Structures are given as structure tokens and as C-alpha cells.
Amino acid sequence: MAEELDMNKANVQGGAAAAAAPAKCACGHDHDHDHEHEHHHDHDHEPGGFCPCGHDAVSGGVGHDRAMGRIFFALLGGILTVNSFLLEWALPEQAFAASISALFGAFVLALPIIITAIKDLVNGKVYMNELVALAILAALASADFQTAGIIAFFLLLTIIIETRTASGAQRSIEELIKLTPNTARKLSGDDNSEQEVQVTELKIGDRIRVRPGENFPVDARIIAGESTVNQASITGESLPVEKSVGSDVFAGTQNLTGLVDLEVTKVGEDTTLGKVKDMILQAESSRTPVVRIIDRYAGYYTPTVLMLACVTWWFTEDISRVITLMVIACPCAVVLATPTAVVAAVAAAARLGIFIKNVAHLELASKITAFVFDKTGTLTDGLLSVVKLNPFGEVTPAELLMVAGSAERYSNHPTAVAIQKLAEEAKLELDEATEFQEAPGKGVSAKINGVPCLIGRANWMSDMGVTVPEHNASETEGMSVVYVARDGKVLGWIGFKDKLRREAPAMIADLRRLGVRYCAMVTGDRQSVAESVAAQLQIDEFKSECLPEGKVEFVENVKKNSRVAVVGDGVNDAPALAEGDLGIAMGAIGSDIAINSASIALMTNDLRRIPMLVFLSRKSRMIINQNLLFGMLFVFGGMILSVFGWMTPIWAAVLHAGSTLIIIFNSARLVRTGEELTLEENLAAAETEQP
Ligand SMILES: Nc1ncnc2c1ncn2[C@@H]1O[C@H](COP(=O)(O)OP(=O)(O)OP(=O)(O)O)[C@@H](O)[C@H]1O
Ligand SMILES: [Zn+2]
């Protein structure tokens, strides 16, 4: 009824506007920012009425003052209606008093509904409020005030229930917002004097201090101190994470053990938490393809029902049938079928650290039949370690490492990180590198002390005109290898290894159990390494020594006969991620690149989230279908019953409210999906904490 229309308007204004509106209100941080959202959401907040935002949150959520108004109307009208029955029973001779009470009751109950219907008419919206309002008017006109009152009461009740669930997204968000404190300790001057400020006043670059036990108010980087942090609110992973100077921390996560000073890196909507919030809001206003089809025919719906009502009246002259028909035809159940389920699914995903940018992708995830994984950092943990320094001829291992470390100073590639780490452990004083350049998926070139140096894969070396000497293949068996060259001569090679992620085999097995037919792997790494990983995971197909373009090509081929999801870590596989029907980025917490290049981002590196995502999306599709089927059967079945006079108006109103509740409860089943996964992790965390 009223709310459906509101949701509809929010949709028309586009996800962004709808999302921006309540998000800006941020319900709860402080109360000065007033009700900016009312313009967007079309709320009629009474000026001077109490603030609908979070803090005092009795009922919580945008529009709760209006809900309160409705509850007041419903109560008052309900009492008057009940009173009329009581009068009728206690003072049978005072029939007039009873009908006056019923009339007032009906009036109070019907008024909000009729006003909304008139507003809709004025706005040129023939949707569904008109049906209900007409039904009530018809009941009033037939002087059956008690019936009119009871119908209006139950319809108002439905509106109230709907408001509370339509703001289901709102409530999930309020839970998120509760995670961030309202005030922060800002540091100023050289003496770091603390000053308490509102979080909304913080700007990028400000310094703040956070004590153990407190939640971080914004995204920030540690500049002094170290601590462990519980990031479960964003990643769904409760294992505490160690943080020290230079580490990033995120708004809404909890500082456990240490006092830390931080530099603010992101505030408000730009924080990871802010993005999660946006995602949930978008889910509410998003429309899956089925909803789009329904919307297309919605315009014909009300006129059709009205025509049916006229026909019924013409043949039966039974106003009660007409009223019943118009009440039961109100399609709340159908309209709520999708958004309630989608919001529940997205909220469940967010709790698991699965960030779904577009709800269409939630639906798509249920139809994926092929997966293509990147190797390094995705199936393996990407924490390479150097297992062999193999200099040629006169060159010493230290010299090899020196050149490699200096050339790789500015690269973030896993191989570069491994080299830098070893160089640091060996306490090497690295040389300055100039003219640094990285060829994605190939290697880096730089000038060290003015001498051109290269480090990268063998065939790239050859392309760059450096001959790589032949050597025994068994030497490098199972290792990732990069060559180091200085001034056109190869100095030697460095061998690396990394480990398979612990949950990788289980993940592949789970995907197969879910009916995924094909799992493949692409990698820039060498054949022998790829072979061993593919064998351990029993992968259907793999391609090694790919350039980033090669990965795209591979995905294109798979796409020809399946719906394919590409899983990667964002390093040299962003184009492949974008090429997949679905791109899933791992370890996206704090990494904007990963979030931007993928359609779905996993905040953690836990691969078990992937089968969980497929499962969740299938479950939500099933629930949406159930809801739609139930809603349509209910409405059409009810219409048939009422046309033939087998239902009363009051029953229609009661069942209408009941059907709405059924939809809401059915969707709520999604919210707990995946809890067992977090539970398992909690147990594991508890185990590791024990000595
Ligand atoms: N910064 C770098 N320094 C040295 N070698 C590099 C660098 N970047 C890429 N390479 C070389 O190019 C190869 C391919 O790199 P790419 O990032 O495409 O894949 P990868 O790291 O092997 O793993 P995957 O493709 O599975 O993620 C690497 O194996 C390495 O030999
Ligand atoms: Zn309805």
C-alpha cells in the first residue's frame, strides 16, 4: 500500500539518490544534520516532530515517526471500533451511539489510507492504494461502519508491518552504524594533546588516538603503537589481526589490545563500512529482472481489478463482494516478495564479508556453471618466499639479491615483496632505482646506479634482447622463477614457492557438490608449478605462463559455453575479472582496486566464501520464487473466492495482513545463512587462543 509506492518512488529516483538520502542522515551520529533525507524519500516528517534518526531508536529507521503516527491512528480507530461493538452488546437499544463510535473509528482508520490514495492520484500514479481506499469508501457508503473500520484497521496494520520491514535494510544499517563511535580523540600540536571531537568533523590527514576496547571511528593508518584488531564486523572473520605502524585499520572494527595513534585516510561514505552501508541500501531499491516484468504490467493491474469489480457489481449487486475483491486484490505480498528477500540475502552476505555491488550479480551467482581461478594469491596464499638464489658464474648470491631488491623496490607484486623481505632480513642497503617501470605479468626494469637492470620471466628477457642461458629443468622443478639481468647480461635466477590455501581443496569440492561443472586455473607462472597446483586441487583445466591478455582470452573461451565466474586477487588479473560474467575479488578489505574491478568482493581471503556465495544466491532465488508464487496464488485465489462471494471483507483484510507476514518471515530465513561458517571460525579462533 502506501509503502510500496514509496519504495517505488525511491526506485524511480534511482538507486544512487535513494541510497544517498538516508545514508547521509547516517541516523545517529549527531543530530544537527536534520532531515535531509525527507526530500528524497518523500517522507512527511512533521517539522518539529521528534528526530527519526537512530539514537533514541525505539522503533528505529527512516520514517518511524510516520509509523508512530499510524500506530496512533490505528490504536485510536481500533478502540473506537471495538467500543462500538461493546456499545452494541451492552446497550442494544442505543444503536445510534454504537454506529457513531464505529463511524468515527472508521474515519480515523481510513483517513491516512485515503489521503495516500489521493496523493497518488494527484501524482498520476494508479497503483494499489486506490483499490484499498475505494474498498473502504465503498464500505463507508454502504453504511457498514464497523466493517469499514475493521478493514481499515487491518490494512493500516499491514502498512505498519511493511514500514518496519521495508526499513529492514535501514535496521541492518543502523546495526553497522552502531559500530562506529560518535566522537573521536583528535591529536593536535607536537605534544599530541587530545581533544574530543565529533567524528563527522574529522578530515583526511587528521591524527586521532584510539584506546584498547574502542571501535575505530574512520578508516585510518597507524602512525604509532601496535595492537590486535577484531575485523569481524567487516570481514566476518573473528580471528584477531595484528596491526603495527603502517597498517590500515577500518571504521567499525574493534581495537583490542593496544593504544594506537592514527592518521585518518577515509571518512564517512568512503570508508569500507560506508560502502557496505551503500550496498545494503542499494539492495533495497534494486530491481531484479522479475520485478521489472511485474512493474511493466503494474499499470494495467488496478484498472483490471476495477473492471472486475464493476462486472461483479453488475451481476451480483453485492457490495460486500466488491469490497472483498478490492481488499484481497491489493498485491502487497507480490510487491514485497523480492525486496525483503534481497535485503536479507545482502545483509547475510555482508556479515560474511561478501560485498555484492549490484543485486543483479546476486541472482547471477546462482547460475554460474564454470569457475576460473587465478593461481597466485587466490588458490595459493600469495606470500611467496625465496627458496633459492642461483647466481651464475662469478656473481655472488648477495650481489644477485642486491640488484633484484633494488630493482623491485617500488613493485607490489608478490615476487617483489618476497625479494624485498629477504633483502631486509639480510640487512642489505639497497641502491636507488631510477626510471622504474613495471610490465604487468612480465617483470620490472629500472636503472641502478645508471645501469639498466631487468628482472622478470624468461621469455620476457628474450623479448627485451637478453639471452637466458639454458639450464637443467630439474633444478627449478616446482619453483616459480624470475631472472635478473644487468646491462644486458643475466646474473642468475631466483626461485620462489608459495603454499596452497588451506581451504582450497574443500572449496573446489564444495563447488562440485553445488553442481559447478568446470573449474579452471590461469596463471602467469611456469608450467611445472601450475601442474602441481592443478593436480593437488583436481582442476579440470589450466593454462600457465599467461600474460594478463592471455587470461582474458582464456575466460572468453570458457564463456562461449558456460556462465563463468572469475576469481582473482586483482594483481594482473583485473581485466580477466572484468571479462567474466561475474568477477570475484579476494582479500578486498582496504583495496579499492579489487573492489572496483570486481562485481563481488570478498573482504577476506577465505575461499569458503565462494561456495557460500553460490549457495546463498541459490537460496535467495528459491525464496524469491516461493514468495512470488505464493503472493500471486494468494491474490488470484482470493479474487476468485471474493467474486463468488465465498469470503467476507473482514476475512480479506485479515488474510491480506497474514499473507504479508508470511512473505516477511519466509524472507527472514535468509538472514542466518552462513552462520555456521562464522561459528566454525569462532571455534577455530577460540582454539588458537588457548595455549
Ligand atoms: N614485479 C615483478 N618482478 C619480477 N617478475 C615479475 C614481476 N611481475 C611479473 N613477473 C613475472 O611475470 C610472471 C607472471 O606474473 P603474473 O602476475 O601475471 O602471474 P603470477 O604472479 O605468476 O601468478 P598468477 O597469474 O597466478 O597470479 C611471474 O611469474 C613473474 O615471473
Ligand atoms: Zn496491500
TrEMBL record:
It catalyses: Zn(2+)(in) + ATP + H2O = Zn(2+)(out) + ADP + phosphate + H(+). Its main location: membrane. SUPFAM superfamilies: Calcium ATPase, transduction domain A, Calcium ATPase, transmembrane domain M, HAD-like. One of its GO terms (molecular function) is ATP hydrolysis activity. The chain crosses the membrane at residues 71-91, 98-119, 131-161, 297-316, 322-348, 628-647. It is found in: Cell membrane; Membrane. Its EC number is 7.2.2.12. Keywords: ATP-binding, Cell membrane, Membrane, Metal-binding, Nucleotide-binding, Translocase, Transmembrane, Transmembrane helix. Residues 178-279 form the P-type ATPase A domain. GO terms for cellular component: plasma membrane. Belongs to the cation transport ATPase (P-type) (TC 3.A.3) family. Type IB subfamily. This is P-type Zn(2+) transporter. It comes from Victivallis vadensis.
